[in-house]
């Protein structure tokens, strides 16, 4: 049995006083690739935010990469996020510095000091996403797909146990989406667990995998033909 990386029991998620999702019971094990789908406003982002500590868990119980979401303190959040690689729809690269310096910024902020190790880690993650020759460029000099690959590389820097990707292809054209998806699939094949929120049903058909759906304030697993 592979290790459980995320487990939620009887969880309800609120935005302010509004109930967004309730009675969530699910678990994700090491090595899985899981989609989270649902219409706009169905609660995908709220769900993801709860997992990385942006929305406090106030009802039910939740464990993620060995953190208890219910008792998570403000000071624990940076440490939780080191064990998670988070990828957003809008890339969130720092526009005023090169790709290498974007990655350097994260490594320094997470305690890396050895220059040789830093250089080789940056090279390693950029190679993984096929961007090894572009480290000297600024974000605006890259296409959307390339920026997203860099954002994925950044998420890999600290060897996360789980990657949370919130609409990672949301700003990309269909062909570029497939390329970014292939990068995520490769990373998953190398053993990394990935939870990806998306409303891109074409991707689901092309790369079928376990699928959770947010609908009518519930989250449930669906079989592909019912997506
Ligand atoms: N900061 C907030 N304050 C109050 N309500 C919010 C906030 N963020 C989201 N909501 C509400 O919570 C519900 C779920 O929103 P959420 O962003 O999680 O959905 P989503 O499925 O990710 O949608 P999308 O695909 O458009 O991002 C919506 O009704 C939304 O209006």
UniProtKB/TrEMBL annotation:
Quote the protein name from its UniProt record.
Answer: Cell division ATP-binding protein FtsE
The UniProt entry's sequence similarity note says: Belongs to the ABC transporter superfamily.
Species assigned in the record:
Galbibacter orientalis DSM 19592
Give the UniProt keywords, A-Z.
ATP-binding, Cell cycle, Cell division, Nucleotide-binding
Query: Which SUPFAM superfamilies does the UniProt record give?
Result: P-loop containing nucleoside triphosphate hydrolases
- Does the keyword Chloroplast belong to this entry? no
The ABC transporter domain sits at 6-227
Q: Name one GO molecular function term.
A: ATP hydrolysis activity
């Amino acid at each position: 049995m592979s290790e459980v990386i995320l487990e939620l029991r009887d969880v309800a998620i609120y935005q302010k006083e509004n109930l967004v999702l309730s009675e969530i019971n699910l678990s994700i094990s090491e090595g899985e690739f899981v989609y989270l789908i649902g219409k706009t406003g169905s609660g995908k982002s709220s769900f993801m935010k709860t997992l990385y500590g942006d929305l406090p868990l106030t009802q039910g119980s939740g464990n993620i990469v060995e953190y208890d979401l219910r008792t998570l303190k403000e000071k624990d959040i940076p440490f939780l996020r080191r064990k998670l690689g988070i990828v957003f729809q809008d890339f969130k690269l720092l526009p005023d510095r090169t790709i290498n310096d974007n990655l350097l910024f994260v490594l320094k902020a997470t305690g890396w000091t050895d220059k040789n190790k830093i250089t080789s880690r940056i090279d390693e993650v950029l190679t993984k996403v096929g961007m090894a020759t572009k480290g000297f460029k600024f974000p605006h000099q890259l296409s959307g797909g390339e920026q997203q690959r860099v954002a994925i590389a950044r998420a890999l820097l600290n060897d996360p146990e789980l990657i949370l990707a919130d609409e990672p292809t949301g700003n990309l054209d269909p062909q570029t989406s497939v390329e970014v998806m292939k990068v995520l699939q490769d990373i998953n094949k190398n053993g990394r667990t990935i939870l990806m929120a998306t409303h891109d049903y074409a991707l689901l058909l092309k790369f079928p995998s376990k699928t959770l759906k947010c609908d009518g304030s519930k989250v449930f697993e669906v079989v592909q033909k019912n997506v």
